[in-house]
Amino acid sequence: MPQLTDAEKALEGKRIAEEKARAEAAAKAKAEAQRIAKEKAIAAAKAKAEAEQLAKEKAAAQAKALEAKRIAEEKAKVEAAAEVAAKAKAEAKRIAKEKAVAEAKALEAKRIAEEKAKVEAAAEAKRIEEANRPWYKFW
């Protein structure tokens, strides 16, 4: 190799320093790009995890809402059945009351009929007694 002059040595040193600086800048840029890519990957993973968590929470809320709806429907059915039972009980009570009133009326009618029969029997007995009594008296 031929000997370089001082100016050439200076230019060569400058060129080497520039290449070294470019290599360092490229390495820094590459490291920065890797750091940014890593941060983006972490952010994407966090976003995915949050989305999955939100989906789980939404599914849990929907399941809870469905369960609440099912319970409300069952409660409504039970209340409707209780209302039907209460109406049936009230109807049975009303029928029993009507039956008791009818029986009381029947007993009263029977009592009146028996009294009337007694009065009629007494009147008939008196009529027969008077019919069998002689028209004359021995005293």
TrEMBL record:
Keywords, comma-separated and alphabetical: Coiled coil
Coiled-coil portions: 14-132
Record carries keyword Coiled coil: yes
Full protein name: TolA protein
Organism, as annotated: hydrothermal vent metagenome
